[in-house]
Amino acid sequence: MSDCIFCQIAKGEVPARVVYEDDEVVAFEDINPQVPVHVLVIPRQHYNDIGDDVPEALLGHLLAVAARVAQEKGVAETGYRLLTNIGEDGRQTVGHLHMHVLGGAKMPIRMGPAD
Ligand code: 5GP
Ligand code: ZN
């Protein structure tokens, strides 16, 4: 998708602070970090979101790279959050599948059962 900003980053047409890349995925610093460590992991190929018939092996690889990025960014010990927003209610703003790696601070909202 030529008008997709993350496709352009994946192709190197738009600059980004890349922290990891291989044939399948690219990980780069979010332009507007919400926490000290805020990295986006994307497939090179365009998928709208996690429900867009993404091959399971690619989804697994995306998660594995997210965990590796967390390790290399030094937040694996203290903890972090992986997040992917989907569609309007999910408040997705870029329509190219991406996994947020968020860490280096206590997350503002605890998801799941109350303490
Ligand atoms: P979403 O809201 O779709 O889950 O997240 C999109 C994320 O992409 C946001 O956190 C936003 O800051 C980030 N973002 C949007 N445009 C760019 C860009 O051109 N470069 C980088 N590095 N991040 C971007
Ligand atoms: Zn794209």
What does this structure look like?
This protein has helices spanning 5-10, 56-72, and strands spanning 18-21, 25-29, 37-43, 80-83, 99-103. It has 115 residues and is of the alpha+beta class. The protein has a five-stranded antiparallel β-sheet, covered by helices on one side. The radius of gyration is 14 Å and the shape is globular. The chain starts with a helix and ends in a 12-residue tail after the last strand. The relative contact order is 0.22. The structure holds guanosine-5'-monophosphate and zinc ion.
Tell me briefly what this model is:
This protein is an alpha+beta fold and 115 residues long. It has helices at 5-10, 56-72; strands spanning 18-21, 25-29, 37-43, 80-83, 99-103.
List keywords for this structure.
five-stranded antiparallel β-sheet, alpha+beta, about 120 residues, globular, binds zinc ion
